TrEMBL record:
Residue ranges that the Swiss-Prot or TrEMBL entry lists as coiled coil: none
Organism this protein belongs to: Hymenobacter cellulosilyticus
Name of this chain's protein: Helix-turn-helix domain-containing protein
High-level lineage: Bacteria, Pseudomonadati, Bacteroidota, Cytophagia, Cytophagales
HTH cro/C1-type domain boundaries: 10-63
Keyword Transmembrane: yes
Molecular-function GO terms, alphabetical: DNA binding
Length: 199
């Protein structure tokens, strides 16, 4: 058993299940710092390895033996930066104060960040597409306000409340490492290559 193989195997099995370090730590009853240390150095007590193997539903030997060269598809990508994902979900709330900031803020954040994180890029597309849909809905509501006030007001309230609720719910989901969902989003930005999101 080498330290490198323990570190590689733990990372491989964690990503295969789509777990964040925090989620695995919670399942195994250890701290997230312990997971980070083991994935960085490979140093771990047998007791800790046993807890991790149980949480991953694998035998302890799977963590200790040298990792085979993968012939199967790569594990589902998991974003390590939950703070960035949560901020991405909450940035559209600026649209309540600054016109069109609901679309521009997450778009500029995505373009500024330009990370290699496929989960962040996929979620950024979802957020921007949904906020574009909300903007179209609000535009239609304003048009209806001028011609038929009750319907326009109802649509305006529905779009605003729905955008607020989905931003807050998805910020919480992103923090927990769960897949975010934005229904009724116009596919304005291409989805790019298929990537996984946190489980």
């Amino acid at each position: 058993m080498t330290s490198d193989s323990v570190a590689q195997n733990l990372l491989l099995h964690r990503l295969r299940l789509g777990l964040t370090q925090e989620q695995l730590a919670e399942r195994a009853g250890v701290t997230a710092r312990t997971i980070q240390r083991i994935e960085a150095t490979g140093a771990a007590h047998l007791t800790t390895l046993t807890l991790l193997a149980t949480a991953l539903a694998i035998p302890v030997q799977a963590l200790q033996t040298p990792a085979p060269t993968p012939k199967s598809p790569a594990p589902t990508p998991v974003s390590a930066d939950r703070h960035a994902l949560v901020l991405l979900q909450l940035l559209p709330l600026l649209g309540a104060v600054v016109p069109f900031a609901n679309v521009l803020a997450p778009l500029f954040y995505w373009l500024h960040r330009r990370s290699d994180d496929p989960v962040f890029a996929a979620q950024a597309r979802l957020v921007v597409n949904f906020q574009l849909s909300v903007t179209v809905g609000i535009g239609a509501a304003v048009g209806l306000l001028l011609s038929y006030f009750p319907a326009g007001l109802g649509l305006l309230m529905l779009c605003s409340a729905g955008a607020l609720a989905l931003s807050l719910v998805n910020a919480r989901r992103a923090w927990r490492g769960v897949r975010v969902r934005y229904p009724l989003a116009l596919p304005a930005l291409s989805s790019g290559p298929k990537v996984g999101s946190p489980a």
